[in-house]
Design brief:
Number of strands: 16
Number of domains: 2
CATH class of the largest domain: Alpha Beta
Strand content: 15-25%
Radius of gyration: 24 Å
Number of helices: 15
CATH architecture of the largest domain: Alpha-Beta Complex
Structural class: alpha/beta
Helix content: 25-40%
Length: 400
């Protein structure tokens, strides 16, 4: 028997509303999670309840699932994980899928693909564009270890021991990496339900300009969010770009010039905004990819001091990140897409002028074409001070 555990015992404190009952397409998030797991191959679904459990009882029964009450829910999520694992251990399940109730857009197809690839020896997760998602497959051989764990790392204290062995099943469904911890996450899900990003941007012209050249260092560095200044040449590049953009006559159909918060992008954008007589809107979500502890360091030093990590990054440039403060390019694309959704809601003009960084521009270019960053990695490479234009027709089809 294949079990499935849905975690719905938390306080939903960051959301400000009870997450299991928030609706998407008129259906509560908890119901969507249960239906996806059952349609994907789970024989039995158990919902772990705690806070506001009485509000979920009728819904759980109507969806043909079992309620698993966790009186210790105040002790954190791991108490709910153990309550669910304990129940399916008692039932003699061969394993169990684990899904938080705030991940309601996981499609049944992703669950089926995960179960088809999973075995009785390894933890397994679906992955979208290199990022691990939900649900987690827990083979029964780990049940006892989870129930016996008393450390302070929760479930990660167990899965972390086997990190290198976790099966990652790449799937084409973004829903496996989406959750709704905070109100903006929920709003993003509501937007995704209604239309794609390319459809939402249809009829618009996007002018994507890369900032000018920065001051030179003693050697090549990992710049990321290292806040380098524009050089004199960089300032001149921005002035030349401003003249070219003015010839495109975007002023009557543009509300502002958008940029990130880093100096090199802001200084370039300020020159553009002044030339076009438009206000400047600074959005930190347009900042370059975070490279964590490598930012601002010489590449030759990293190559010498961290040869294994340097090699792994070279082999997995899109998904690699050095530490918890860093982002992968897949992380960057998700951040940029959320930022673009916010910009589209804020600005209804035809022309959108964005001054940013190479990584961000690659992500924007890919997302506006309905593709992922891998597609744009080699095909979108504007030089410093150069720009590209993406025009989206009424159907959302890109022309660049």
């Amino acid at each position: 028997m294949t079990g499935a555990i849905v975690l719905a015992a938390g306080y939903s404190s960051r959301m400000g509303a009870f997450k299991p009952l928030l609706k998407l397409g008129g259906v509560p998030a908890l119901a969507l999670a249960i239906r996806s797991l059952k349609a994907g191959g789970a024989d039995e679904v158990g919902v772990v309840t705690g806070y506001n459990g009485e509000l979920l009882r009728e819904l759980i029964a109507s969806e043909g699932a079992e309620e698993i009450c966790n009186p210790d829910y105040g002790g954190g999520m791991f108490t709910s994980v153990r309550a669910g694992v304990r129940r399916f251990s008692e039932k003699g399940a061969r394993g169990a899928l684990l899904l938080p109730a705030d991940c309601p857009l996981v499609p049944a197809a992703a669950v089926r693909e995960l179960l088809a690839a999973a075995d009785g020896e390894h933890f397994a997760v679906p992955a979208f564009r290199g990022k691990k998602g939900h649900p987690l497959w827990i083979p029964s051989r780990f049940f006892r270890e989870i129930l016996a764990y008393t450390g302070d790392m929760g479930l990660k204290g167990v899965t972390g021991r086997y990190e290198a062995e976790i099966l990652r099943v790449e799937v084409p469904y973004e829903g496996v990496v989406l959750d709704m911890d905070e109100p903006e996450d929920y709003q993003s899900m509501l937007r995704l339900e209604s239309k794609s990003l390319a459809e939402a941007a249809s009829g618009r012209r996007f002018i994507l300009l890369r900032h000018g050249e920065t001051e030179l260092h003693s050697g090549k560095i990992y710049i990321g969010r290292y806040d380098a200044q524009l050089s004199e040449r960089g300032l001149e590049q921005a002035r030349l770009a401003a003249g070219e953009l003015a010839a495109l006559k975007p002023e009557p159909s543009a509300e502002a010039v958008y940029c990130g918060s880093l100096k090199r992008a802001r200084a370039s954008a300020q020159i553009i905004a002044e030339a076009l007589r438009l206000p400047l809107r600074v959005m930190p979500c347009l900042d370059e990819i975070s490279l964590g502890s490598w930012e601002g360091r010489l590449i030759e030093d990293i190559k010498r001091e961290c040869p294994d990590e340097y090699k792994r990054r070279g082999e997995n440039i899109l998904s690699y990140k050095i530490d918890a403060e860093a982002e992968s390019f897949y992380d960057l694309q998700r951040r940029v897409e959320r930022c673009l959704w916010d910009m589209l809601a804020l600005d209804k003009s035809r022309d959108m002028i964005i001054v940013s960084h190479l990584g961000v521009i690659k992500c924007l270019y890919a997302s506006l074409h309905g593709r992922d960053i891998e597609w744009a990695f080699s095909s979108c490479n504007p030089k410093k001070g150069d720009y590209i234009i993406v025009e989206l027709g009424a159907s959302g089809n890109g022309m660049s």
